[in-house]
Amino acid sequence: MTTTITLTVNGREQRLEVKASELLLNVLRDRLHLTGAKYGCGLGECGACTVLLDDRPILSCQTLAVSVSGRRITTIEGLSAHGEHPLQQAFLEEGAVQCGYCTPGMILAAKALLDRNPDPSTEDIRHGLRGNFCRCTGYVSIIRAVKNAARRLRG
């Protein structure tokens, strides 16, 4: 049995037939070919699947697609639709990217944080990125990147 849902994904309305058990992560990756959100742990513990739902970070591997019908989704692809976002620039400049697997989720969690708090402290950044794990870079360069992007976005 399928249900018709409508989502606005990266500014474009999408109308899809989905199974009741279909995860948002699978819809994004397999149906819409937006592969920035990654399948990591499948348990909602690593953050690799993070996307923004109405500008708030969610774990798409734990979210049923039918539960977000009528809502707005932003993926990493949508963040850079109009050129490289300051967060993406800062992650590159600060060496906050190694294998890149966690990077889309980290950047989207950081965007949600900076939208709420344009001048976060180190502790605010740590708190805002909790649940997003990186096994390559450590977090020093990631925190520097978020601070760098915050400065740019503030002007």
List the helices and strands and how they pair.
Blueprint: E1 2-9, E2 12-19, H1 24-31, E3 50-53, E4 56-59, E5 72-74, H2 76-79, H3 86-93, H4 103-116, H5 122-128, H6 140-154
Helix pairs in contact: 3-6
Summarize the structure in words.
The structure is a single chain. With 155 residues, this protein is an alpha+beta fold. It folds into two domains: 2-79, Beta-grasp domain (Ubiquitin-like (UB roll)); 86-154, [2Fe-2S]-binding domain (DNA polymerase, domain 1), CATH 1.10.150.120. It has helices at 24-31, 76-79, 86-93, 103-116, 122-128, 140-154; strands at 2-9, 12-19, 50-53, 56-59, 72-74. The chain has a five-stranded mixed beta sheet. β3 (50-53) and β4 form a beta hairpin. α3 (86-93) crosses α6. It is globular and about 45 Å long. The termini are far apart.
